[in-house]
Design brief:
about 400 residues, alpha/beta, Alpha-Beta Plaits, six-stranded mixed beta sheet
Length: about 400
């Protein structure tokens, strides 16, 4: 696949004709694995955050395979020594959008830079929104303020079960979350309520995501179930997903990718219950014959550990991915590209807050015929989307500049 013109350029990218380009790209987002505070982090209340560094304090932390690829050689990682001979292209990504949430981060990865932050509701949602939501659903609501997802069902679960009122809450992110016990509100009905909320929350109230949060159990032992479903805004401009699909290639979403992009640009998808299943599905897609992009989100770092200040859990989840990495790399074909990045931070050691953090993210690019190198610090996550399109030989009207 790679045409060696001379010894000096052997192994480098030589762009010739269509059949010399990449056939498949596997893009893995380690949800919330930031690598240090951005210059403007203090403006977001995140001075001094560093998700990866905090996770490294966990007793289970080990990432020898990511280390070999160059993770600890990335700019700004000065708390651990890098390797002398990185096996991949590595770099640090700066977020150009004004935000630090999942939606904005993934949109930018896909080539859409958001100039304005999505609305947030630190005092809860306004009366006109709540009144209309109650009218549409025929139910009252409880809470209506920022809250931890696990604490809110602990504090309001009994009243919800007794009255049938929906638990509505938000966070520091642009989200409208609705929690309901599966025995009180069937999951499909909860989804219908969230779709109503998504249609209601438009214009200046266009939150990034409406999230269904079903739970089960008994008083004192309520637990969220796997039926979470996100209803996102559609991206406001063309993304790399749109361009790949328009070119007749596959765009496979693993995890919550389909929800983040409101289904747009996706040709097939599979939901997952967590990182373990996400890794399993990735290995399965590596064995399939397709042309295009497999876009994977591994959410446990954020959902289970970052938001709960669980350093040990975060470290263990990072080690699980690192342990699986050799299997992923072994299955890559000569014309495959593996890209590993993140969408924001969520520092488990930052006790001031349990919310997302404004951080740089890592980028690792590996292929069996790719020459390793240091990208330095890139000015936008959108360079990832541009690189995906370049690798696949597809033109697209998106932000960003390919690193290839």
């Amino acid at each position: 696949m790679w045409y060696p013109i001379t010894e000096e350029i052997k192994g480098r990218f030589i762009w010739l004709e269509r059949d010399t380009l990449m056939k498949r790209v596997f893009l893995i987002v380690l949800d919330s694995v930031g690598i240090g505070a951005m210059e403007d982090a203090a403006e977001f209340g995140d001075a001094g955050v560093n998700t990866l560094r905090s996770a490294s304090h966990g007793s289970c932390f080990h990432m020898p395979n990511m280390e070999k690829l160059g993770l600890f050689n990335i700019d700004g990682i000065d708390w651990k020594s890098g390797t002398a001979h990185p096996q991949a292209i590595y770099g640090r990504m700066r977020e150009a959008s004004k935000g630090k949430d999942t939606t904005i981060g993934h949109w930018e990865i896909a080539g859409v830079i958001s100039g304005n932050p999505l609305p947030v509701y630190p005092e809860g949602f306004p009366k006109e929104i709540i009144d209309e939501f109650c009218r549409l659903t025929g139910r009252g609501i409880l809470c209506n303020r920022p809250y931890s997802g696990t604490e809110v069902i602990k504090d309001y679960g009994d009243e919800h079960v007794k009255t049938g009122k929906l638990i509505v809450y938000t966070s520091a992110d642009s989200v409208f979350q609705v929690a309901a016990h599966e025995d009180v509100v069937p999951v499909q009905t909860l989804y219908e309520y969230c779709q109503m909320a998504r249609e209601l929350l438009q214009g200046r109230h266009s939150v990034g995501r409406v999230i269904a949060r079903p739970f089960a159990g008994t008083s004192g032992n309520y637990q969220r179930t796997a039926g979470r479903h996100d209803y996102s805004l559609e991206p406001p401009a063309e993304t790399m997903l749109d361009a790949i699909k328009a070119a007749g290639r596959e765009v496979i979403g693993v995890g919550k990718i389909r929800d983040i992009f409101a289904g747009r640009g996706i040709t097939s998808y599979v939901y997952t219950k967590g990182n373990t299943e996400g890794i399993e599905r990735t290995l399965e897609y590596l064995d399939q014959d397709f042309e295009g992009l497999c876009f994977i989100n591994l959410v446990d770092y954020d959902m289970l550990y970052g938001h709960r200040n669980d350093i040990e859990g975060y470290a263990k989840a990072l080690a699980e991915f690192d342990d699986a990495l050799p299997k992923i790399m072994e299955k890559l074909h000569d014309d495959d590209l593996l890209m590993i990045t993140a969408d924001h931070g969520c520092d488990p050691g930052y006790t001031v807050s349990t919310d997302h953090s404004r951080e740089y993210t890592p980028l690792i690019i590996y292929g069996k015929n790719i020459e390793p190198g240091n990208l330095g610090t890139r000015n936008t996550f959108a360079d990832i989307g541009a690189t995906v399109l370049k690798a696949l030989g597809i033109e697209g009207n998106i932000a960003g500049k390919s690193v290839l």
